[in-house]
Task: structure prediction
Amino acid sequence: GDSVTQMEGPVTLSEEAFLTINCTYTATGYPSLFWYVQYPGEGLQLLLKATKADDKGSNKGFEATYRKETTSFHLEKGSVQVSDSAVYFCALSDRGTYKYIFGTGTRLKVLA
Amino acid sequence: EAQVTQNPRYLITVTGKKLTVTCSQNMNHEYMSWYRQDPGLGLRQIYYSMNVEVTDKGDVPEGYKVSRKEKRNFPLILESPSPNQTSLYFCASSPNDRSSPLHFGNGTRLTVT
Result:
C-alpha cells in the first residue's frame, strides 16, 4: 500500500541555518503531496503542497519539489528562525482511494 | 472564520464508559476524517466519510464508531473505551477533490484509565 517515510528527528539547528527534512513516498498512480506543520498544542496546518511531478510548493520561505523519478518531496528552508520550531509532517493523498497517508513527523528545534 | 471545531479539548475517562467526541466544520466540505496521533507512529486514520451517510474504515477502526447524518458534523464514538485508546485525536475536513489539503481541528487529548 501507499506509504510515506520521513527522516527521524529531532533536528536541532541554530538560527539562520539551512534546513532539509527528507521525505520519500511509495504510491500507485500520481498522488498529491503535502507538508503540514504542527505547533505545540495545535492541530496540523498546511505548509505547502504540490499536485503533479516537478511542481514546487512554497510558503513562508519553505520549499519542496515533487520529484517523481526519486519519489521524494524534501522540505527545505534557507534560513530557519526560532519561530519555525515545530513538528513537520509529510503526507500524500491517494487519488484513487481518497486516503491521506502521513509520515511519522519530524520535530525541529531552532536555537537562538 | 473557516474552521473545524472539536470538543472537548481534554477528556479523562474510565475504561468502559461510553464517550463521544464532536467535530463540526463550517466550510461545506464533503470529506471528513478522524485520526489519532501517537508518538513515533504519526497520524493514523480511524474512519473517513466522503459525504452524508457515507462512511468507511481507515487503518485503525477497531473500538470506534462514527456517523455522518449531516454534512457539517462527524462525531467519533467510543462505545467501551480502553487504555490503549489513550491518544491525541484530530478531526479534519476537505473538499472532495483529492488534491485539496485537509483542514484540521485543534485536537482532543483523551486519557482512558
Notes: Residues 52 and 69 of chain B are 6 Å apart (CA to CA).
